Amino acid sequence: MDNRIQIVAIIATAVGFAVVFELVRRRRLLERYALLWLLSAAVMLGLSIWRGALEEAAGLIGVAYPPSALFVIAFGFVLLMLLHYSLVISRIVDENKRLAQRLGLLQQKVDALVAEQRTEEPREVEALPGPRT
After folding, report:
1. Could you report the per-residue pLDDT of 59-112, keeping only the tens digit for each?
2. Model confidence pLDDT, tens digit, residues 4-28
3. SS3 content of the chain, % helix, strand, coil (to 5)
4. H helix or E strand, kind and range, residue 65
5. Around Cβ 19, how many Cβ atoms within 10 Å?
6. How far is CA 79 from CA 4, 10, 17, in A?
7. Are 44 and 70 in contact (CB under 8 A)?
8. Whether the Cβ atoms of residue 13 and residue 45 lie closer than 8 Å to each other
9. pTM for the full predicted model
10. CA 129 to chain centre
């Protein structure tokens, strides 16, 4: 692997680490989602620094040019993250739907109670004793 490519890969993964840490520090990214990014950045950094591992990984997946294997592995991580986020979004949409249905049922009960109380209020007011003169 060319030294320039290795340097660019190391710098890119270091920037990725810094961005993820800063997002977690500012509480814009939850820790449980940051772990996926940090894991992928650690693997990418390890493969960028350790040439032997990258060449062996390239041989395992059948890529002749090892820096291309780095991009194939990064693409695999991106696909895994997209699948994970799709699962999370699906779960959130399902929970949102259930909450909206429960809110609708509760609003219906509140409306029925308010309507029932409006019909009962005049009787209670009439039952109260009036001022004596």
Report:
1. 999 989 888 888 899 999 999 999 999 999 999 999 999 999 999 999 999 999
2. 888 988 999 999 889 999 999 999 9
3. 85, 0, 15
4. none
5. 13
6. 27, 21, 19
7. yes
8. yes
9. 0.67
10. 62
